[in-house]
């Protein structure tokens, strides 16, 4: 049935005392699937994953599994898990931790000029940029720092204290990419360097997870005995980096180090049965990591409304 005939049919339906025309036609949804945010509790902390959107579909290999000798195994595994190696979307998942007194944003997305949806979804979740009291950057890649400044180079989270691992901050200021020039350099006086293990808010501490970049940092939040580990890019790809212990990404800068870091952190969160979130995992990117064979597997958390 084409649309014209459907509408005629709907009109007849209405004339016959059916539903109002608007309902028969359906209405456009007000937001994206899931609203672009996912709220859940970690003890006394309200956590929110905020989607910065998705990339258009693109090839997964070798970007998300770069070991030359594993390309065929990677491809087979992707197909087995219903992922198209030639056309898969990438997710970008900044996280907000609302501690009541403080609201900490972990990573800032790609920036509005690059299709970033973070600010739109932040507002849908009930927050404005000026509500953010702390911004933590896991590392200096463009999809994590791009949302720090607006189109005029002004800080987006103007009232926030900005924090970043000292090693990564020093590295990127000494080796500035175009994104670093645009988004990080203008704020460098405002960014406080953080060390491994430092508690940046009550119950929230930085955890060194070097390798993806020279000084990549993850965050661990513990509240009322509940745990959330925020990987950033230390987790890599949700399937390949977990299943293949030796896997690395094309954009992992120190490949040997990142393999060791992932082994250490996957073991830690699986033994602790900690809830985790990772920046490029499938939306809403909240779940657990469990041992499986020689490697690990991602188990999504039960979705709660
Ligand atoms: Zn990234």
Automatic annotation (TrEMBL):
InterPro entries: MBL_superfamily_lactonases, Metallo-B-lactamas, RibonucZ/Hydroxyglut_hydro. Transmembrane segments: none annotated. Pfam families: Lactamase_B. Residues 91-280 form the Metallo-beta-lactamase domain. Its EC number is 3.-.-.-. Belongs to the metallo-beta-lactamase superfamily. This is Metal dependent hydrolase. It comes from Thermus thermophilus (strain ATCC BAA-163 / DSM 7039 / HB27).
């Amino acid at each position: 049935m084409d649309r014209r005939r459907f509408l005629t049919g709907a009109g007849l339906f209405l004339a016959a005392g059916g539903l109002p025309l608007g309902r028969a036609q359906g209405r456009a949804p007000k937001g994206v699937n899931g609203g672009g945010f996912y709220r859940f509790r970690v003890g006394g902390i309200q956590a929110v994953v905020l989607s910065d959107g998705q990339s258009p579909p693109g090839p997964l290999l070798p970007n998300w599994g770069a070991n030359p000798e594993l390309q065929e195994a990677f491809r087979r595994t992707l197909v087995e898990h219903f992922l198209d190696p030639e056309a898969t979307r990438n997710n970008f998942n900044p996280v907000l931790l609302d501690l009541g007194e403080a609201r900490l944003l972990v990573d800032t997305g790609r920036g509005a000029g690059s299709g970033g949806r973070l600010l739109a979804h932040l507002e849908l979740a009930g927050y404005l940029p000026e509500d953010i009291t702390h911004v933590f950057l896991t590392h200096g890649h463009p999809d994590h720092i791009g949302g720090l400044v607006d189109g005029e180079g002004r800080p987006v989270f103007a009232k926030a204290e900005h924090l970043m691992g000292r090693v990564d901050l020093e590295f990127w200021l000494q080796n500035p990419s175009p994104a670093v020039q645009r988004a990080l350099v203008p704020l460098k006086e405002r960014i406080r360097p953080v060390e491994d293990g430092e508690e940046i808010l009550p119950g929230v501490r930085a955890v060194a997870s070097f390798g993806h970049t020279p000084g990549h940092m993850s965050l661990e939040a513990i509240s009322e005995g509940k745990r959330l580990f925020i990987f950033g890019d230390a987790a890599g790809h949700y399937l390949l980096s977990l299943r293949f212990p030796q896997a690395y990404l094309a954009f992992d800068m120190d490949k040997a180090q990142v393999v060791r870091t992932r082994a250490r952190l996957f073991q830690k969160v699986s033994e602790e049965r900690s809830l985790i979130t990772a920046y490029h995992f499938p939306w809403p990117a909240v779940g657990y990591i469990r041992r499986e064979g020689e490697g690990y597997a991602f188990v999504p958390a039960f979705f709660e409304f």
